[in-house]
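Today's session is about reading a structure prediction critically. Students often jump straight to the picture, but the first step is always the sequence itself: look for stretches that repeat, for charged clusters, for runs of hydrophobic residues. Only then move on to the predicted structure, which in these notes is written as discrete structure tokens rather than atom positions. Here is the chain we will use throughout the hour.
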Amino acid sequence: MSCKKMYFMLFNRVTDALEAIAAGNTEEAKQILILAQQDCEEM
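Below is the predicted structure for this chain, in token form.
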């Protein structure tokens, strides 16, 4: 996967996590970020 695609994937996941935090779902945000980290490590 290109760096550009990885950047956009990570950016979207961070946006999702921020939305979860704003909604009070910190555990969901944590899981989103953990999965994003794992996906980037695999790339």
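Discussion point for the tutorial: The two ends are 7 Å apart (CA to CA).
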